[in-house]
Amino acid sequence: MNMKIVSxxxxxxxxxNPTIGxxxxxxxxxxxxxxxxxxxxxxxxxxxxxTARLPYGSKSRETIARYAVSSAKFLEDQGADLLCVACNTAxxxxxxxxxxxxxxxxxGVIKPGAExxxxxxxxxxxxxxxxxxxxxxxxxxxxAYAQALNALxxxxxxxxxxxxxxxxxxxxxxxxxxxxxxxxxxxxxxAEAPDVNTLLLGCTHYPxxxxxxxxxxxxxxxxxxxxxxxxxxxxxxxxxxxxxxxGIPPICRFYATDSxxxxxxxxxxxxxQPLDEVHLLDLGG
Amino acid sequence: MNMKIVSxxxxxxxxxNPTIGxxxxxxxxxxxxxxxxxxxxxxxxxxxxxTARLPYGSKSRETIARYAVSSAKFLEDQGADLLCVACNTAxxxxxxxxxxxxxxxxxGVIKPGAExxxxxxxxxxxxxxxxxxxxxxxxxxxxAYAQALNALxxxxxxxxxxxxxxxxxxxxxxxxxxxxxxxxxxxxxxAEAPDVNTLLLGCTHYPxxxxxxxxxxxxxxxxxxxxxxxxxxxxxxxxxxxxxxxGIPPICRFYATDSxxxxxxxxxxxxxQPLDEVHLLDLGG
Lengths: 285, 285
Hints:
2 copies of one chain form a homodimer.
Chain A: H1 2-8, E1 19-24, H2 30-39, E2 44-49, H3 61-77, E3 82-85, H4 88-101, E4 106-107, H5 110-122, E5 130-135, H6 137-142, H7 144-151, E6 155-160, H8 164-169, H9 176-192, E7 198-201, H10 210-219, E8 225-228, H11 229-238, E9 251-256, H12 260-271, E10 278-280
Parallel strand pairs in A: 1-2, 1-3, 2-9, 3-4, 5-6, 5-7, 7-8, 9-10
């Protein structure tokens, strides 16, 4: 899917100071934006969090595709030269719908995440990688990560973790209940696939849990290499643009479909800096 | 709010075999429908679960009102003679919006729940009731239960419990993690209000947790009378209709805005019987 775009649209088509649209169902995609800012500093960024309709991860493919396409079209209307789908669920279930609806390049998080697992293996960190993907129910049901990993020659096991997003949103990122939930999810996955040695965080909320995930893996005596698709996705986006030596600082504009105040309050933790310019957006419904 | 309607619209205005609309953001309102079926057996019921846009409980008042009004209007268009808002969050934040948008009587769950607390006290079960309300973040922020309880002369403390709905939807209704989360939420509430002796379940998902809540209260050595607004709300709805001796069995028709299959699968646990006729509904967005 992304392969097609990479091969048909080259970096020279896009301006050195582009407008990049970044879309997520909520706040988690801000971790991808955070990785993009130092990579393409001269860009103008428009971020849309579809917070009035989140979470996507518990809903059907048809509903997710409808929501994702309307969100993507808004960002294109705002002048995006490229769209980064920073939502794992939308990337897993609606990337083709979005690509068909938009004339601009579209980059999702699934394939960059899978390729990062390969790169880790090639770097010698993990011999013969067998990947465990933690993700939402909708993402795991789509089998998108398994297909992408299998296509790259890697074994893959997927585990739905419906409680992790609510736990992050409750702020329990360093909490004994979250540790116990992780122990349960990981133990169930290890019972099914004892040989997994690479952990792919298949939801943009999960990188906030990386420290507690590492501690839980140590307690379970099951060391793993942890891969976060945010950084890999940002690198993929950067391939579309020429190096930008202009030194112009990035400009960020944010849209949310629900409460601006909540978006500013929760979002700054994901972005790692305050969110100044947030606008309320009505996408209908 | 309900008071106004009760005083201006009498039972004789409504037919003995009415059409009753029941609305919730998801499946939880089926517990209210379950309580209605034996009370008004001759009715035709139309239930709408706005599953494509759930949860309401983490969203803003404006978004909740917009979603609730569009859902309510659909049920009126389908011929509802009365609308039961079986969603605590929509009742707390959007009841007046719904009342203003519809020409039919509207019954929410807040006031019946508060009145049930008074009735419990008057029945001598709880001397000098001091009520603890467990609910979603949006419901507690609205202070709707506190205001309704205070208006009836009862002290009230509200506690937001954002993780309980995800835990119920994960199916962990008899699980040590759920018990630990309840211990944390209840202990925090007791630290703030040590004298509470009546527990009002202010979310239609919570009655499924009643056994584990009772065990947790016993472990915390803090006995409480538990009140569920579903039964009280059903009684309030029944006041609008003459007794129906016809013996005609109730007819139920269900609409969901997301996956029908998931609605049937999860909903039967709330309704206590299979959901045969479920239709997919697109409310836009």
